Amino acid sequence: MVAQVQSGVGQLTVTTCDAxxxxxxxxxxxxxxxxxxxVVRDASAISIAFGRTSVDATVLGKNDVADIAVxxxxxxxxxxxxxxxxSEPPVGSDVAALGFPLGHPFTLTRGTVSALDVEQHIGDRxxxxxxxxDAAINHGNSGGPLITQDGKVSGVVVTIEPEGxxxxxxxxxxxTAPRVSAAVNEWKxxxxxxxxxxxxxAPAPGSGFFPFTVSANHDQARSVGQSLILHGQGINQGAYAxxxxxxxxxxxATFGDSVKWSEGLGSSYWTKAExxxxxNTQSPDDLNANVxxxxxxxxxxxxxxxxCSNWRIQYAMHWDGSLWRIAGTSLPFGEPTAC
Length: 339
Known about the structure:
Layout (H helix, E strand, L loop, with lengths): L1 H4 L3 E7 L4 E10 L2 E4 L9 E6 L2 E11 L4 E6 L20 E6 L7 E16 L2 E9 L11 E4 L4 E6 L13 E5 H11 L24 E3 L6 H16 L3 H5 L4 H7 L2 H6 L5 E12 L5 E11 L11 E12 L4 E7 L6 E2 L1
Parallel strand pairs: 13-14
Antiparallel strand pairs: 1-2, 1-4, 2-3, 3-6, 4-5, 5-6, 7-8, 7-10, 8-9, 9-12, 10-11, 11-12, 14-15, 15-16, 16-17, 16-18
């Protein structure tokens, strides 16, 4: 069953004005993706990766109280379209959570429905009528489908930890499928998306989306790619604080702060990129990532007055326990060429 439905599960890369993170979503139509509202909260840019390619997305509707959101992709996606259950599965039913926990590759965790109609108090609000499950859930699973053995969605995973209680083992929650279905039916016909947050004078026009492809075969290639997407989205949207956070603390220190770092970017923004090779180093926490990148900028900010540049950049990436961060860049293949 997982082999049949996996193509419909996507990894969201969300940039806000001061941070970036990943989550999970799933197709319910050719260009409609369900996720959790907190995944897309305060978004300034969203891209969704299905397989090795990414697609631009906007928010059609979101309900922060119910923690449900529906996003629309710029172009149709070829992947499995999930069906939502019309009723809640009984307690004891086998379920599986599909998603990208902690930014890792696609993952399945199995469990059971351990309780129904559960309330969860989050700060000053209450999420009612939740499904409780003992399937292992972690950050990054948020927005993913909780499916029953027939492949239908019983709920949308939400990974919110109550403040003051720490991390509970074997207790996770999902918004019920009937509630999600009602939201999808309400929002799917909308033509005007929810406005993105503006982070200042973004150099890239429109949403700032750039196509990103992962062709490298390394087992960490997609995770490295997610970090680079976050970095590029931050640059394009003028969310320089978010892009700066993808650098290691040591590299950040060489620039001082995000304001000084962004001055060196000028009007430059990313238009497309491909991660084509990832190689190991002597340390298991460090990798080299080779990227073909195209940028556009004013002549005053381009190498040799280039307004469009093709780069072959090698990124030194460091794993800090939660994210692959940029530890340095180099140009071992020479200077950029004009487009």
